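If you are new to this repository, start here. Below is one unmodified record pulled from the training split, so you can see the exact layout before writing a loader.
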Amino acid sequence: MRQRNVLIPTMREVPAEAEAASHKLLIRAGYIRQLAAGIYSYLPLGWRVLRKLEGIIRDEMDRTGAQEMLMPAMQPAELWHESGRYSLYGPELMRLHDHNGREFALGPTHEEVVTTLVRDHVTSYRSLPMTLYQIQTKFRDERRPRFGLLRGREFLMKDAYSFGLDWESLDQSYQAMFGAYQRIFTRCGLHFRAVEADAGSIGGEGGTHEFMALADIGEDTVISCSECDYAANLEMAEAAPEEHSAARANEAGGSAAPSAAGCEPFATPGIKTIEQLVQALNIGADQLLKTLIYLADGEPVAVVVRGDHEVNEIKVKHYLHAEHIELADEAAIVKATGCPAGFIGPVGLSIRLLADREAASVASGIAGANKTDMHLRHVVPGRDFPLDHIGSFRNVREGDLCPRCSGALTARRGIEIGHVFKLGTKYSDSLGAELTDATGKAARIIMGCYGIGVSRLLSAVVEQRHDEHGIVWPLSIAPFHVHLIPVSVQDGTQMELTHKLYARLKELGVEVLMDDREERPGVKFKDADLIGIPLRIVIGKGAADGRVEYKERDGGSQAELSADEAVERIASQIRQLTP
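And here is the target side for that same chain:
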């Protein structure tokens, strides 16, 4: 394409509303433009990258035997009521009514639609296993859209669904998709990790993994082992139990051994936080027992962790088999405990009490006394409060030990780019999807679900692949393979060689953007760096001798070559794109 005719509105200034590097660069380089909060137009360059991403995804999906289709974005609300997700999904589900008053939802996902489709139209068990997929626009009413395409209200997604009548079939489909995802993200040039994860509002009965592109701007925390392949989202990460010693229980002015006399109350006027207690008592936070009150499906529950740990709400939610969990407000705390926040402790509580295993192992600690301006010392778990519910209820921290090999755990930020679920019969149960099996008995269909955020991929790649000058696209998904830049469009010799190169490269199937604008060389080179096309040929003073400058945007090879040598080098790289 000729650049003078392409809509590429580059910007020199950083947009005020952009925070993430990918958001800034995709706007500045003319790939996207915001229409409203969380809603973007994809300009020609951005659309070409999306098409490349879709092509890689389709290639790998088709390779697994999955069948592409397209389902409606607008879904009848009664389907969501039938599955039980209408209220569970919450305010992020975009709802609307037609002129007859019938309620619809703009789909953030399509489990209900595809399950009823298979239920109504697949009539024989011989048709299974089957995997269907689509690439479709999705909608989610994010309360706070941010980071450009990383958290939007309208986004492009690939979602696939597998159907079978036994768990072995589901395992096979799951592994096939897991492998396809690894190939997709590798071909996109991403540095990523597959991590154990929480199923969230999708739900399910089996395993689930998230694929995380590692990036500082990521909103998820990836916990991984430095010695083995263990990796998990912070929501699901576990650590090996710590070794406890009497030294951990040492208190300022006290003994490591529990007091035979039991708990001892002492005044702590105005001292409510862990930090204040640590400073006032000159002790370590690991000697404190922190108690938080939650509402699980409306019922109060107390969770005790060590003072240096944080409660993991997802783990608590799973343990309680709750649909909703939230920190109790001040009124709910007083109602459940008779005491305001800041002085809550586990001793004497009448509500259900969950104790993190590390808190349960504290030999003798300090906790709130459930009285204003009072705490207790010499609190012994199991003696002074019950340990009926012990589990892993805390967030893992960097430096904890791996639960598999005891290696050191590390923490990194990540962008979720894909998620695979073993749904089991969650949706076939609620929506009545069953078939008669080979024995003549009715059997529920067993499902899997596999999603990739296509538009999010575009941003994730830029987060990982950019420098101070602009984007650095991998060849596989770049909007064009080659950027042809004549230094002066007024120079006949330069333009003659430029057009010859343009024609030869197009004949070889190379995608070329020719900068035929009447601009200064500095402007052209700055735009080229910003746009990030991976291969560049500059036609300048050497044109009379058939010589050009060949440059790779990622800082690799740069050399003066003959035009023929440049073409051959480019053609060789393009041939390597075939998987």
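Two things worth knowing about this chain: The chain has 15 helices and 31 strands. The radius of gyration is 29 Å.
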